[in-house]
Amino acid sequence: MHELGIVFYIIRDVKKAAEENSVSHINAVVMDIGEVSTIVPDYLLDCWRWAADREEMLKGCELKINTIPAVTFCEDCRKEYPTVEHGKICPHCGSGNTYLLRGNEVEIKQIEV
Ligand SMILES: [Zn+2]
Fold first, then answer.
1. For the chain, N or C: smaller number of CB within 10 Å?
2. Which pLDDT tens digit goes with each residue over 91-100?
3. Measured between alpha carbons, how far is residue 65 from residues 32, 43, 90 in Å?
């Protein structure tokens, strides 16, 4: 299960940050999750609850998810457009010469103690 793997990465990073800052308990972790990342937020939250409550430092710790809208950039007309609506083809000029600017993030944004 992909989401569980991500959760273990988050826990590892959060514990490391907590140890570096001599923090004994974390109240909440805020994540940036891109709209077109492969993460399903509901699964991620389920996995988080299961895994976090097994860690003394993370018992009851809340996972908050910021969804980052996906935006694609067109190299031909130099415009941006929403990825989810239009995919890889630019709605302004019809070009397929495009790349994802943002929306693929899976990042820890903030740790609340
Ligand atoms: Zn274009």
1. N
2. 999 999 999 9
3. 6, 12, 29
Q: Measured in angstroms, how far is the CA atom of residue 106 from the centroid of ligand 1?
A: 27
Which two tokens mark 89? 């083809």
Query: How far is ligand 1, taken at its centre, from the CA of residue 97, in Å?
Result: 8
Residue range 2-69+103-112, CATH number: 3.30.2320.50
Read off the pTM.
0.85
Residue 58, both tokens: 């993370």
For 42-64, write each residue's pLDDT tens digit: 999 999 999 999 999 999 999 99
Per domain, the residue ranges of the chain are 2-69+103-112
**What is the distance in A from the centroid of ligand 1 to the CA of 102?**
17
DSSP class of residue 61 equals -
Cα-based distances in Å from 108 to 3, 34, 67, 112: 14, 12, 12, 11
- CA 90 – ligand 1 centroid, Å: 5
CA of 79 to the centre of ligand 1 (A): 6
